[in-house]
Amino acid sequence: MKIQKKVLYIFLRYKLILLSILFPKKCGNYAFTLFCTPPEKFKGSKAKIFETAEPLSFLLNNIRINGFRVSASGKNKVLLLHGFCSSIHKFEKLTLAFSQSGYEVLAFDAPAHGISEGKTVNALDYCNMIPKINETYGPIDIYVAHSFGGLAACLALEKIIHSENTVLALIAPAAETTRALDNAYTILNISNKKIKRLMIETIRERSGKLPEWFSVKRAIKNIKAKILWVQDTEDFITPMEDVEKVMEDKPVNTSFYITQGLGHHKIYRNDKVINEIISFSKGHVTVD
Q1: Do 131 and 259 share a domain, yes or no?
Q2: Can you give the pTM of this predicted structure?
């Protein structure tokens, strides 16, 4: 970790401790804001496939969401959803693969990411973006979601009318928000139980739900779509342990594709993974 980040995390930790003593309410709000703020927007190279794509945009809670449409002539539609601190520009290989397979591809940066506006994003923000896309540019036949996008997609499909012919490809989804919170606490080296309690109270006040509710394991029980869950055994951000808990439930609409050595980020650029997702999609959604 760079020295600047270490210093920043130390500063944030002590600020939270001080706020928890003096202003508990502000501490909970500040902790939640930190959790929902990407450290930085994606600054990598832009995907060439979007240079000639149709630009799209819409307003979500007065924030402009920007994205692209590729292969508008495709009869069936695919929506790509990236993870936290990521961007649609990382999905160039997936976009190209679906486009070449005859599908229309829609891809948008989440709030506070890439070319979209905003400074923070939470699971409900991202979730609410998806029905808006479905209503405006859909109906969507295939959802392909990585990491945080996977959680958002599952929450959205609990609300969106869809059928058994819909496909949801989850790539290393952020299966449990409690896991994400624990990861954040680890990064900031926070063990203070009061800060953690104040964070939970803030989440409950804002959403009406406890962190445990924001769970892929819970949500897929309410989803009709055919689900392909792609997971790597060496993913330490969304670990295999969370997937195994879902496997124990034996969801009838879910197939699992397990890889090794791809981790959390290489997995959605891997040719075998992409071919598996395309093949699974073709098996359930036929291009007219």
Answers
A1: yes
A2: 0.93
